[in-house]
Input
Amino acid sequence: MSIASGLPSDFNPSAYDVIVVGAGYAGAVCARMLAEGNSGRVAVLEKRDHIAGNAYDYVDEAGVLVHKYGPHIYHTNDEQVHQFLCRFADFTDYQHKVLANIHGTLMPVPFNHQSLKLAFGEERGEELYQKLVQAFGENRRVPILELRERNDEDLAEVADYVYENVFLHYTMKQWGKTPDQIDPAVMGRVPVFVGDDDRYFPQVPHQGMPANGYTELFENMLRHDLIDVFVNVDARDLLRLDETNVWVCDQLYGGEIIYTGALDELFGMDLGALPYRTLDMQFETLDQDQFQPVGTVNYTVSEDFTRITEFKNLTGQVVPGKTTIMREYSKAYTPGSGETPYYVINEPQNIELYKRYRDRVANVLNFHVVGRLAEYRYYDMDGVVASAMALSDKIINHR
Ligand code: FAD
Ligand code: UDP
Output
């Protein structure tokens, strides 16, 4: 692999059999799989000045390894994805834990057996827990919206408490809407957990952090004789599409293009901009060993920010006397403002608009879209890797 800044003046697209736009998970996985799958030479074009997409991490001035675009915790149920990623990094056995700060008391989220006892007292908490076990069984994940539908006084008491103290205000801050107004799948990501597992991802078999960080994982994935990476290159300056063809640098391009950027941006948003939420991330380094007891504390009833992450608690890094924390403030994304479009807003009218953009590339058979931006999907890292692996397999088998 080589990483260059900018394209050389003699850049010749036809010297590459595959052009990948974006060096995040979607792009890097496709680049690696296609290079290994006898698909020829691969150029990866990335508009930022670094690889790894939103998973990018770096060591800050205090010597703390931080995640520039928000805390990333690897977790997956998918064996294939896990086997693939383990080729490029050793993973620590970090198990992510989140506490909700509810009027000053810290309670595990997902709300679980222990949280019930903290919220309702030892005896009443246990009683309510037994009711949950009767209704749903032990070690079960119950979405809050489902819990609210149960016609039982005790279950309603739990549902009301959790809805009000865990979901309502946090969701208003994160999405500007109440939990009932957004896609139920979003709430379903953080269920009530009927059990004692106090990890943020209960019962998920593979979780951890890449031992030397995400950026190194990406360096390893992209290190291949057939892959060249060019950062500080916005592919929109090079690409042109009509109904059936794609041109790169004004040459009709016959190789495969893997596009992982936003589709509305590719077309100058001429049908309108796809809506997103963005985050204002405020990093702060403190002169102390540790700030909070776990990786992330969610502020579910107070403050303007949604959560505070302390990176040393995620990575296990030892930096005596210093720690870096980060607060997340969510707001609507303004296209063209330089903000990062972080969260897709999964609403029918947005999906409709997305489909209209998607239809435009449907007949350009060598142009493939994959990833959280290009698919306009709320994906975790493992979901993107799975999607990129499936696409790569399809292309390799087709050639
Ligand atoms: P990206 O990582 O966004 O990569 C796309 C790349 O394409 C970017 O680098 C972009 O600069 C580049 N690009 C776009 N347009 C162009 C262009 N025109 N030319 C050149 N390059 C271009 N997932 C988890 O599993 N666990 C977590 O804990 C977790 N935490 C998260 C926290 C936050 C705050 C956010 C926002 C997401 C989190 N995720 C997490 C999700 C994770 O970030 C994504 O699933 C993953 O990074 C998506 O990879 P991607 O390649 O699709 O997109
Ligand atoms: N959520 C909440 N309170 C919490 C945690 C999550 O209301 O303490 C809701 C909120 O709407 C959030 C969604 O559940 O956007 C999904 O949470 P998750 O932690 O999966 O979001 P992400 O890590 O992707 O930001």
Summary: The pocket of flavin-adenine dinucleotide (ligand 1) is lined by residues 21-27, 45-48, 53-55, 70-73, 234-236, 260-261, 279, 342, 371-373, 379-382, 384 (CB under 6 Å). The chain is about 30% helix and 25% strand. The longest strand covers residues 276-286. The two ends are 23 Å apart (CA to CA).
